[in-house]
Design goal:
Elements (H helix, E strand, L loop, with lengths): L14 H10 L22 E5 L2 E4 L4 E4 L2 H4 L8 H13 L8 H13 L5 E5 L2 H16 L3 E5 L44 E4 L4 H8 L4 E6 L15 H12 L2 E5 L11 H6 L5 E4 L10 E5 L1 H4 L16 H13 L2 H24 L4 E6 L2 E6 L8 H5 L3 H13 L2 E2 L5 E3 L6 H21 L1
Parallel strand pairs: 3-13, 5-6, 5-7, 7-8, 8-9
Antiparallel strand pairs: 1-2, 2-3, 4-10, 9-10, 11-12, 12-14
Length: 441
């Protein structure tokens, strides 16, 4: 194994990752097990271990990580209390095909923290609990149509993978978006139960709901799949009121926002309680746990004819990780981590401006977004889609060569392990990377 971890900043190399990806593509399609791990320069990386805010790859590089497991590792890569809880549970048993006390402890914690969670059901991924929420909404209302929004992602299944990142040339007019399919091989008829709108436009949502055929409005309460965009003042409140008026349910997808915007999620932060909520990612700091939660009368339909299943739902080891994670997410955690995350965000904004790069840096302390080339703050997907993605990609690659890993789509996730020293190192790398981008233009 190469020992590039001691090289000077800006000279990290990744040949061993490239070699192993090429070799193992014989067995794993594309060398990766999720398409979202493709496309980043210089290519997919292979990691041997994680330590706090760092990842160590097969080339020996020690890299500050702002992927945070695509937002999941809110406590960093090696939280002692979570690891110890998992080890204790593993000694008791792995999978019972029955219930265990730990799952009820986990459920109680979530129901105490999430305002909408009177009841819940656990799953293993955000994609599957999104399906569970949709099924509940249709069963409860007797209606079929689900309203979703451009740029919002609710999983990779055929019936919901529409207009998640459409090209503006294919998306049609902003006031009447054209549904854009997300993958080759996707069933085009699966989208017949969807209605696509632009987000943060309350008048458009009210107009669509007035047709009376909508079972549910499904949205990220803060748009974080594309950008890190807060709802416009009154938008969430108006959406809830319109749903009530027209007999639809409001579903919040808090897979990203849950436990990053606060212990009670975006719904607590913004003071709007939906009918149903889906959660995953940071709920258990990287263990495969998801949940659909909400009004008791809705969740109780799962015990009255609405099918929800899953061999690995509430798997005891994952439940132990959830309990330990939630106990660590104290008010002190959010105060401390948010201070570091806000300083990082402010520092990036200042440095990019000083180096002559037009960019918008916006969002929340533990999850924010950097977009090159925008004149003003993004309000919806179409604003974000106009960013200079090629320039930002060069910036992300320049950061990686300096030992800082960020998503090329502009998202930055911050964990409890990103302390002041790590923020300082990151900002040094940001300035050097920005200068490299400017010089290459």
């Amino acid at each position: 194994m190469a020992g590039n971890g001691t090289q000077q900043a800006g000279t990290l190399r990744f040949e061993e990752s490239a070699r192993q990806i090429a070799e193992n593509a014989r067995f794993v399609a594309g060398g990766v097990n999720s398409n979202f791990r493709l496309g980043m320069a210089p290519g997919p990386l292979i990691f041997e271990r994680g330590e706090g805010a760092y990842l160590i790859d097969v080339d020996g590089n020690r890299i500050i990580d702002y992927y945070c497991g695509m937002g999941a590792t809110v406590l960093g890569h090696s939280p002692k209390t979570v690891i110890e809880a998992v080890q204790r549970q593993a000694e008791k048993g792995i999978l019972f095909a029955g219930q265990a006390p730990i799952e009820y402890e986990a459920a109680k914690l979530i129901c105490e923290r999430i305002p909408s969670a009177e009841r819940l059901r656990f799953g293993s991924s955000g994609s599957e609990v999104a399906q569970a929420a949709i099924r509940l909404a249709r069963a409860a209302t007797g209606k079929r149509t689900i309203v979703k929004f451009e740029g919002h992602y609710h999983g990779w299944f055929d019936n919901i993978l529409w207009s998640t990142a459409p090209g503006l040339n294919a998306a049609g007019p902003e006031e009447a978006p054209t549904p854009v399919i997300g993958s080759k091989g996707q069933d085009p008829e699966a989208g017949e139960g969807l209605s696509i709108l632009g987000w943060n436009d309350l008048a458009a949502l009210e107009k669509r709901l007035a047709k009376g055929d909508v079972a549910a409005v499904l949205m990220e309460p803060a748009m974080c799949n594309q950008g890190a965009i807060a709802p416009a003042p009154g938008y969430l409140e108006g959406a809830l009121a319109a749903c009530r008026k027209h007999g639809a349910l409001l579903i919040f997808d808090e897979v990203i926002t849950g436990f990053r915007l606060g212990r009670g999620g975006a719904q607590e932060r913004f003071g709007v309680t939906p009918d149903l909520t889906i959660m995953a990612k940071a709920i258990a700091n990287g263990f495969p746990v998801a949940a659909v939660a909400g009004r008791a009368d809705l969740l109780d339909l799962f015990a009255d004819g609405v099918l929800h299943g899953g061999t690995f739902n509430a798997q005891p080891i994952a439940m132990a990780a959830l309990v330990a994670t939630q106990k660590a997410l104290t008010p002190e955690h959010y105060e401390r981590s948010s201070a570091h995350g806000q300083r990082l965000q402010d520092g990036i904004r200042t440095i990019l401006a000083e180096e002559g790069i037009k960019a918008q840096v916006a969002g929340f302390p533990l999850m924010f977004h950097v977009a090159f080339g925008l004149d003003g703050r993004a309000r919806n997907y179409r604003d974000v889609a106009r960013a200079d993605k090629a320039a930002y990609s060069r910036f992300a690659h320049a950061l990686l060569k300096r030992g800082v890993r960020v998503l090329e789509r502009g998202a930055w996730f911050v964990s409890s392990e990103h302390d002041g020293e790590i923020v300082d190192r990151t900002l040094d790398a940001v300035r050097a990377a920005a200068r490299e981008v400017v010089q290459s233009q």
